[in-house]
């Protein structure tokens, strides 16, 4: 009790002066989140749902404690657990004050909580994006005890629900089958969605979910929240249904192996939990998140994107300078903006001729590239295209000069055999020297070659047998500090190169989060580019990420699939190519050239329009997507017939998001040379009301598997 007298006196004075007489209201255009202060001075979540009239807020009372602590009377999973310097593992947080700061569309509310005995303060921060109907929540923890305290739980927020039933939609998978969607009903007890993988945290579980109340939600109906975490490391979403059927949702950093020793005065700030409420189904929640992402969550989210040709499938590791320059002609022929040089261009003492050597030695291989990257940039410029390059700066091969020179820079257990994944190890990014090295890789590349217009930043393995030589006795800080250090490096890169397009890649969908996307322009969702598989993968990601962030490349992968089908699938996201252009037939090349032109004409609608998922591939052997621009003057419709069967009879599709009073011309585009549109409604004009009420038959006649159509819908 040695802290008690002065701390308690100050707390009582603050509470007496600032005890609110009305609820604390966080609201957007269509949502309200309301907190009230109980007689015990604790903060309670009294409401979360559709926006109420302002006169209703004063009648709200009670609810569940907003940020449940451990060690007191709480018997369930806590939002925070802290062990004081004297060993006391309890915390009681009561209201001290709050502030609200509005800047245009964005309002940030800070609720300050303090312990009545120990000098511990927690600030709950909620930022409301009014027009986007999105709220972000985080917590900042600080103390002024004489010695460090130990944090064992530190959620970004805690949300409470009271419904008859709860339905969870989660997304999981592994390499080449990312973002597979699963629905289940939550029952009494605890359900966790979590990652313990470190650098490649999203490899098995995607840090996104829908939580539907009372009944399963559809695209157009149901009450739900959609949530995701802005953190490029281990995450955990905990869903706990108690004996009274009340649900607590606790999102944040996974506390696994991550007790954090917090020094006096040090701030510990959790990542943002990003969520939106909808009572109009998953589609509306998705569109809310897309608008928020483009405006606030993604680097240059409303800016243009580059189409590209990657060399990987054409050459793998086997190329030289002349061969690459020849491939530039393929990019020029296609009409894409850029050529991207992938893995294999570096290493001399240990040449990067396969994935077993060279990582860490970021010098041009003199045999392959005797004139260096600058020569390639210059040659690409002569062809009228930009030049981009692949890097994997956080990793190292044992067969490398870096490994030999700096064994202390590598994450690996002492007294244990190394555990390799893809023949590589992870660098200890918590070490400032390693941070300087990683920044220097990028800075040196761009300083020596200012014409480099794009970087593909890869990360091909998770952490295992993990130990940091730099952190010494603070090994439990490793997973957190690695991610923080990753952001430190990116902060430095963006301070010097604020708008350079960079793809976030991790051997597929190992990094898919808004913690990283504020530094990146797009992400690589999967190494699986099979068109049929990509329909499902891109469908899953499309719930939480806008189309201009989802890189989709056309390759030769996809048995029995036409080039048109694979192209049509890629065009519903951010288009690129990774294909042998010189092996295309004249008709395929002509089609691809026209497809690139079509995509550039349609991309504004696809990248920045509202997405309506009309027919789910999880429900039928087809998939239908519609993008509509803000003015409702133009839309793009994608229709994919999947592994259909003779019994499949597809009904008309009712469109969404159009203006019922406008007239729209319906016209098929992206046709293969020598073919004509066969839809009987092609080039006809319909009212928006007709298209949304009666709908269109997109697959008249016999249903052919693995075929597709793209329709342009234009107001007249």
From TrEMBL:
Entry keyword annotation includes Secreted: no
Catalysed conversion reaction: Hydrolysis of terminal, non-reducing alpha-D-galactose residues in alpha-D-galactosides, including galactose oligosaccharides, galactomannans and galactolipids
Residues making up the signal peptide according to the UniProt record: 1-18
Top EC category: hydrolase
GO molecular function: alpha-galactosidase activity
Keywords per UniProt: Glycosidase, Hydrolase, Signal
Keyword flag Membrane: no
Positions annotated to bind substrate: 175, 342-343, 422, 456-460, 505, 527
Enzyme Commission no: 3.2.1.22
Residues at the active site: 458, 527
Protein family membership: Belongs to the glycosyl hydrolase.
Protein name (record): Alpha-galactosidase
Organism of this sequence: Niastella koreensis (strain DSM 17620 / KACC 11465 / NBRC 106392 / GR20-10)
């Amino acid at each position: 009790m040695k802290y008690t007298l002065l701390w308690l006196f100050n707390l009582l004075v603050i509470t007496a002066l600032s005890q609110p007489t009305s609820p604390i209201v966080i609201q957007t255009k269509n949502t309200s989140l309301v907190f009230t202060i109980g007689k015990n001075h604790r903060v309670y979540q009294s409401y979360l749902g559709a926006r109420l009239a302002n006169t209703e807020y004063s009648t709200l009372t009670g609810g569940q404690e907003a940020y449940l602590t451990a060690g007191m009377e709480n018997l369930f999973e806590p939002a925070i657990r802290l062990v004081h310097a004297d060993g006391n593992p309890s915390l009681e947080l009561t209201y001290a004050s709050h502030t609200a700061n509005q800047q245009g569309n964005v309002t940030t509310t800070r609720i300050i909580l303090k312990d009545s005995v120990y000098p511990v303060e927690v600030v709950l921060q909620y930022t409301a994006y009014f027009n986007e109907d999105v709220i972000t929540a985080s917590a900042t923890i600080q103390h002024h005890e004489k010695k460090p305290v130990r944090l064992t739980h530190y959620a970004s927020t805690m949300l409470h629900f009271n419904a008859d039933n709860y339905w969870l939609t989660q997304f999981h998978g592994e390499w080449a089958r990312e973002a597979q969607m699963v629905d289940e009903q939550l029952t009494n007890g605890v359900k966790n969605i979590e990652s313990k993988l470190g650098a490649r945290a999203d490899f098995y579980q995607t840090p996104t979910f829908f939580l539907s109340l009372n009944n399963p939600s559809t695209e157009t109906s149901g009450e739900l929240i959609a949530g995701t975490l802005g953190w490029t490391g281990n995450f955990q979403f905990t869903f706990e249904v108690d004996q009274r059927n009340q649900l607590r949702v606790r999102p944040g950093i996974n506390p696994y192996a991550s007790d954090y020793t917090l020094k006096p005065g040090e701030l510990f700030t959790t990542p943002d939990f990003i969520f939106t409420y909808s009572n109009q189904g998953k589609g509306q929640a998705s569109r809310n998140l897309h608008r928020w992402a483009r405006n606030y969550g993604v680097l240059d989210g409303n800016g243009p994107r580059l189409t590209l040709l990657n060399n990987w499938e054409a050459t793998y590791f086997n190329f030289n300078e002349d061969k690459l320059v020849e491939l530039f002609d393929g990019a020029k022929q296609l009409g894409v903006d850029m050529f991207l040089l992938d893995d294999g261009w570096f290493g001399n003492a240990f040449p990067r001729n396969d994935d077993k050597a060279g990582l860490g030695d970021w010098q041009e291989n003199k045999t392959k590239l005797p004139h260096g990257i600058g020569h390639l940039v210059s040659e690409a410029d002569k062809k009228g295209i930009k030049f981009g390059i692949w890097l994997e700066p956080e990793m190292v091969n044992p067969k490398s000069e870096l490994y030999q020179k700096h064994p202390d820079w590598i994450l690996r257990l002492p007294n244990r055999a190394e555990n390799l994944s893809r023949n590589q190890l992870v660098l200890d990014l918590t070490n400032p020297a390693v941070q300087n090295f990683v920044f220097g890789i990028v800075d040196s590349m761009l300083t020596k070659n200012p014409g480099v217009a794009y970087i593909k930043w890869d990360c091909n393995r998770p952490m295992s047998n993990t130990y940091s030589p730099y952190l010494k006795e603070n090994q439990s800080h490793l997973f957190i500090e690695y991610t923080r250090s990753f952001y430190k490096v990116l902060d430095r890169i963006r301070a010097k190169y604020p708008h350079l397009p960079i793809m976030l890649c991790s051997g597929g969908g190992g990094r898919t989060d808004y913690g990283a996307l504020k530094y990146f322009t797009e992400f690589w969702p999967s190494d699986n580019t099979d068109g049929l598989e990509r329909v499902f993968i891109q469908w899953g990601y499309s719930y939480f990420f806008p189309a201009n962030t989802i890189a989709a490349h056309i390759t030769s992968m996809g048995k029995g699939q036409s080039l048109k089908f694979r192209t049509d699938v890629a065009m519903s996201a951010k288009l690129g190519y990774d294909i042998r252009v010189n092996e295309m037939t004249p008709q395929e090349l002509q089609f691809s050239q026209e497809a690139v032109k079509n995509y550039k004409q349609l991309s504004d609608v696809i990248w920045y329009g509202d997405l309506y998922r009309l027919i789910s591939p999880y429900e039928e052997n087809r998939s239908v997507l519609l993008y509509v621009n803000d003015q409702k003057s133009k839309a793009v419709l994608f229709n994919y017939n999947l592994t259909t069967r003779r019994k499949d009879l597809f009904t008309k599709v009712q469109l969404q998001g159009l203006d019922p009073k406008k007239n729209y011309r319906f016209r098929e585009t992206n046709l293969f040379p020598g073919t004509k549109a066969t839809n009987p409604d092609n080039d006809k004009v319909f009212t928006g009301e007709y298209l949304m009420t009666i709908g269109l038959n997109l697959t008249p006649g016999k249903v052919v598997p693995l075929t597709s159509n793209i329709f342009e819908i234009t107001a007249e």
